[in-house]
Design a protein that fits this description.
This protein is 24% helix and 27% strand. The protein is an alpha/beta fold. It has three helices and seven strands, in the order E-E-H-E-E-H-E-H-E-E. A four-stranded mixed β-sheet has the order 1-2-3-4. It has a three-stranded mixed β-sheet with strand order 5-6-7, with no helix packed on it. The chain starts with a strand and ends with a strand.
Length: 117
């Protein structure tokens, strides 16, 4: 688990091989601090984006389930150097409200919200 993002919008990230039981302990703590937790962003141990998991899936899963078993099939991401024009177009042609932002090596560095466009 790690924090990335800005002071205005911290981003809580979970390792994909974390068990639901362990994730729930962290979710409980971060929910108290009012951090955004839906969806949960998953990375591998090197910080590369591995996917996203809906919080409801975690809440209803068995404690021994690993988060990667719950991840959504599709996780579109934007590269950090994606132009504003291309980002706006992508928001217009998808139903997404946000996209994870990654480096060329797919390291997760933040998110961009549709509200920004």
């Amino acid at each position: 688990m790690a924090f990335i993002g800005t002071d205005q919008q911290p981003l809580v990230v979970f390792f994909e091989d974390m068990a639901v039981k362990d994730a729930m302990l962290l979710i409980h703590e971060y929910a108290k601090a009012d951090y955004p937790l839906n969806p949960l962003f998953l990375t591998d141990r090197q910080g590369r984006l591995a996917g996203m998991v809906n919080l409801n899936s975690v809440l209803s899963a068995d404690d021994a389930t690993q988060l990667y078993e719950l991840k959504e099939d599709e996780c579109l991401a934007l590269y950090a150097d994606t132009s504003q024009k291309d980002t706006k177009t992508l928001f217009q042609v998808t139903s997404a409200h946000f996209f994870p932002v990654v480096t060329e090596e797919r390291h997760l560095i933040g998110i961009v919200h549709q509200d920004s466009y």
